[in-house]
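Table S2 (text version). Query chain:
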Amino acid sequence: MGWKLGYIPLIEQVVGRQETSHIIICTHDPLVIGGLTRKQVQIFNKIDVNRKIVAHPPDIDPKGMGVAAILTSELFGLPTTLDYDTQEKVDRKRELSFKSMKFGLTKDESNELIRLGEELGALDYAKTIRDHLYEKFLTELMSFDKYKLPKLSSEEREEQEKIAKKIIDKMIAEGKL
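Corresponding structure-token output:
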């Protein structure tokens, strides 16, 4: 697999860094594009029933994203890199966590949330799998400079919770949750 990470640099080494040349590589392997910038990548999409194809660069650089993030980005468009059963458990845990914060849980739901937390924690999926909804939430939250501080006052925590609720409400309104 290591050769895949070095494939593009190898091509550059052989042919040089040509600004007037293009190399077209079609791949289903995120490792091949994992070191490229958005300017070096084009996404091809069919846009209508007449099979018209358009190409455009991705919104973000694949470089530094990692395999799971590339697979769940616009580059590959997978909804998840988890198997369906595990993804259903992640979704259910997220649903129960949200309900817990918003409305509270029944005893059975609370027990289910604990069980799901233990089960998913044992898988250690959080270290290798990108939860795209959580990432969007954190990206939005961290755009507020004052919340990058390591310690928050109680007023700042309260304000952070209000902003988090606004972000969640916005994501729900946009159909992302």
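Notes on Table S2: Residues 154-173 form the longest helix (20 residues). The radius of gyration is 21 Å.
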